[in-house]
Design a protein that fits this description.
By secondary structure, this protein is of the alpha/beta class. The protein has a single domain (8-231), classed as NAD(P)-binding Rossmann-like Domain (Rossmann fold), CATH 3.40.50. The chain has helices at residues 17-28, 40-46, 60-69, 93-114, 140-159, 178-185, 190-198, 209-220, 238-241, and strands spanning 8-12, 32-37, 51-54, 73-78, 118-129, 166-172, 230-234. Strands 3-2-1-4-5-6-7 form a seven-stranded parallel sheet, with helices on both faces. The protein binds NADP nicotinamide-adenine-dinucleotide phosphate. NADP nicotinamide-adenine-dinucleotide phosphate binds at residues 12-13, 15-19, 37-39, 42, 56-58, 79-83, 102, 106, 127, 129, 172, 174-175, 177-180.
Amino acid sequence: MSTLQGKRILVTGAGSGIGRAAARMFAERGAELVLVGRRLDTLNQTLPKAVCVALDHSDDEAVAAFAMQCPELDGMFLNAGQFLNGSVESSPISTFDQMMAANLRGPWLMCHHLGARLKDGASVVFTGSNIGLRAIPDSAAYSVSKAGVHMLTKVLALEWAPRKIRCNTIALGPIHTAMVDARLKSSKDSKRDLARLSKVNPLKRLGLEVEVAALAAHLLSDESAWTTGCVIPVDGGADSVY
Ligand SMILES: NC(=O)c1ccc[n+]([C@@H]2O[C@H](COP(=O)([O-])OP(=O)(O)OC[C@H]3O[C@@H](n4cnc5c(N)ncnc54)[C@H](OP(=O)(O)O)[C@@H]3O)[C@@H](O)[C@H]2O)c1
């Protein structure tokens, strides 16, 4: 089990789903947490004793102001994001703008402003997506935004290597969180679509939040000290076979 003893780690999207599970796991493994999301109440529910900061990570001024008072960090799990479906032709430009803001501009700004708050030797983990690696219908803006996160990881791995700061992305397949529930809301038969989503990978099931959290903990720990610039599919094997 990767220890995070003595490390101060910031988690975005920590008020729900994968971010909440990860924040709780990191705390159990000894980390001090800084939790970020837009809603203070849900962040407080994740870990009442953690430092909780309500901000929209795509708001340049808000992130800059936060960075001024953020303590030094040993790691960041930049996990917050949103999903909207639609093809290139069917999506209004507002969908593209929202996906780019929530999924790419947000982590970009967090790195831009908080880079100076990272200790040398720190680790940054992003949440990407397996549909940022392989194309599927009807998720165009989301997929393009996550593909951008994958490249951001590689660019930063290069830029921050002199400071021994590592950057990696976990490219997830479907995990049953609020995001998947919202995605299924518009479905005519959500049970059937959920079952279909479970079968698109060789292991024939959805992933669990803790399975993502455990890999994030490893990547944030010193155990993974030689791992950087990687985009790691965690998707039940879907990326290997499609
Ligand atoms: N679940 C899946 O199947 C799946 C698959 C591939 C990738 N992912 C990725 O996994 C990550 C976590 O998603 P999840 O499944 O755990 O869904 P979730 O429960 O909806 O979590 C998303 C989190 O992001 C936060 N957030 C959204 N927009 C934000 C913004 N502008 N500024 C700050 N925080 C923001 C939300 O908190 P507030 O609303 O309080 O701000 C929420 O806590 C996302 O990046 C998602 O794209 C999920």
